[in-house]
Amino acid sequence: MSKIRLLLVDDHEIVRAGLRMLFLAEPDMTIVGEAGSGQDALRLVRELKPDVVLMDVAMPGMTGIEATRQIKEASPETAVLALTMYEDEQYFFEMIHAGAAGYIPKRAAPDDLVSAIRVVSQGNVFLYASLARYLVNEVLNQPEASKSSSAAEALTAREREVLVYIAEGDTNREIAEKLVISPKTVDRHRENIMRKLNLHNRVELVRYAIEKGLIRTGD
């Protein structure tokens, strides 16, 4: 089984040291590099092609937001997970719009951070409960539904099931086990869902599921 290859990005060396100790204890993870700035992070992503970049948001010079945007352009397959002390709505949406697959506060429990790494490494979105309300509020404040009900009706019963599990952060393998189907079948359902609903990424998919009341999030 291949390990999740991590790049740690934080301008405080003591923070990186703590993260290093945490992930070294995880048998399915390996740290391939560390960076103290957005510029160094971008350079290392191009060189190392990590699976996941754990990104601080506020850093001198190139911010984590701009670094995330450039990392996703340089290496679209690399997932970026924001780990930050800032929990306000502005930073949250700027990171998500820049391409981050998740956003988790530094006050989170270590187990939550480890779980978040695993979730985003599988191509899914991680929503920390206390921050997910921002996405919910954005949906509720939209003047009208962004997706037509006819598109939702085009989904089969099984596709609806898969949609809910994807939005809740389950991996293809986990969904396959719950529905007693193969991971390849799950992936085919995922592709059909995205095509029928005209969605382009998992953040849009999660937003759609919340909008339609298919999942609930909260503190």
What does this structure look like?
With 219 residues, this protein is of the alpha/beta class. Residues 143-148 have low confidence and may be disordered. The chain has a 6-stranded parallel beta sheet, with helices on both faces. Helix 4 (89-98) links the parallel strand 4 (79-84) and strand 5 (102-105). It is built from 11 helices and 6 strands. Helices cover 53% and strands 13% of the residues. Helix 8 (157-167) packs across helix 10 (183-197). The chain has helices spanning 13-24, 38-48, 64-74, 89-98, 110-121, 129-140, 149-153, 157-167, 172-179, 183-197, 202-211, and strands at 4-9, 29-35, 52-55, 79-84, 102-105, 126-127. The two termini are 34 Å apart. The chain has 2 domains: 4-121, Rossmann fold; 138-211, Winged helix-like DNA-binding domain superfamily/Winged helix DNA-binding domain (Arc Repressor Mutant, subunit A), CATH 1.10.10.
Brief summary of the model shown:
The protein is of the alpha/beta class. The chain is built from eleven helices and six strands.
